[in-house]
Each structure stands twice: as structure tokens, then as C-alpha cells.
Amino acid sequence: MSTIEVNNLSKQYGDVQALDDVSFTIDDGEFVVLLGESGAGKSTLLRCLNGITEPTSGSVIIDGEEVDGPRDDVAMIFQQHYILEEMTAYSNALTGSLGRTGFFQSLLGRYPEEDKHEALRALETVGLLDEANQRTSSMSGGQQQRVGIARALVQQPNLLLADEPVASLDPASAEVVMRYIREAAAARNLSTIASLHQVNIAREFGERFLGMKDGKLVFDGDRDEFTVDTIDEIYGDIETDSIREEQRMEVEP
What we know:
Structural class: alpha/beta
Helix content: 25-40%
CATH superfamily of the largest domain: P-loop containing nucleotide triphosphate hydrolases
CATH topology of the largest domain: Rossmann fold
Strand content: 15-25%
Distance between the termini: 45 Å
Order of helices and strands: EEEHEEEHHHHHEHEHEEHH
Number of domains: 2
CATH architecture of the largest domain: 3-Layer(aba) Sandwich
Number of strands: 10
């Protein structure tokens, strides 16, 4: 678990202001949903948190230490899985320990026993223990994403980041994957930030919400504060009208 401080974070790519003076704090074990339209700055923010992207100005502090590059205690779940489809679910999960094992040792299959146990535990966490020896090429998109979650857990992070982890999945698979992310974070007391664009999924699984628009943080609040007006501020009229229609259908007989 980790405490994260984001202080006046900005990132500029040429004439494009991807992040504009973003600040917030996340406490140990918080599960946060990051919302916004495509181009709002969500992925850039996550990459700055992960140390993959260097901000133009401002800082990210994790447990009192400024982030100045990739960190072993920060794991990322990606939209496109980035798993090795010719390998089994178990072998893919084991790659999460590369930071501890080393590349050449892993090529020889010389993983410490504790990492092997951790890979099996992570697969059990995401409901894939029985499929540990199955090649991921034969798995569904939802199962492949769950392998990606297991790999991130094997990294033994204190901070878990998920960049649009269910964007390519059908609604049923998206709910399953988000449920496993939530359960895994709770079981390990991981500070977690999940970037989403599906408001209905966010409303179901979020505890705290950060809303971004045009690189700025326009909302920071809990479930009770995450109202239709908030959605309007983040997304505009089209998304808000859709939510209002959902709410109308819920109350009508």
C-alpha cells in the first residue's frame, strides 16, 4: 500500500497541454476511478505516476519519495493486455517477477519457489488457477486481461494502476474483470487507480472518483458526490442524457 501525492503536475507535448496543474492525494488502500473522455489526460497522468513519462513540471511523491523513473513497487494493467500468447497463463503471470529474478534467469526458467507460489496465488485471485497451464492464445479477451492482472499482482506492488483495463471487453466481461481488480486490491490493501470511460462501470465499482477534462482535474469526490451534474461537467450533455435515461428506466414500472 502507498500514499500518493500529485503536486501541480503538468505535461506538454509541443503545443498540446496534456496535463494542466493537476494536484490530488490518495491514501493507503484507496480504490480510485479516473474518468474522462479520450484525450482528457488520463493515460498521461497514469504514465507520470508510473514513472514512464516525465512531467514538464510538478511532481509525483510516493511514500515520501519523488518519482523520477519506473518503480518496481508500481504495477500497471494495460488495455491491450501485452501478454505472450504462446505462453501459458502461469508463465505469463511469472513474468511479473522479472524485476526480482532478472531476464537471463527467467530465460532459464530459474524462478525462486516463492515467486512460483506467488504466480499461482495471483491466478487463484483472478479465478484462473484451473487454467494455469492453458495457453493464453486460446483464452477469451476477458481471461487474457485477468492474466494481465495476475502478472501485475506477482510484481508485488504497493500501487496498482489500470489504464482502460476493460475498454476492449463486452459489458459482461468488463464487469468480471473490474470485480477481480477490486477484490485483488482489497485483499492486498493496494492503493489503486483505474482509468475508465464507461460511466456505468465506474458507478458500480468506484469508491472515489477523479474527473478530468482537457488536462485539468475538474472533479474529486466520493460516490455520494458523483451525480448526474458531475458527469455533465466531465463528459457533457450526451453522456448525461444517457445516464438520466438509465435512471428513468430504473424507477419506472
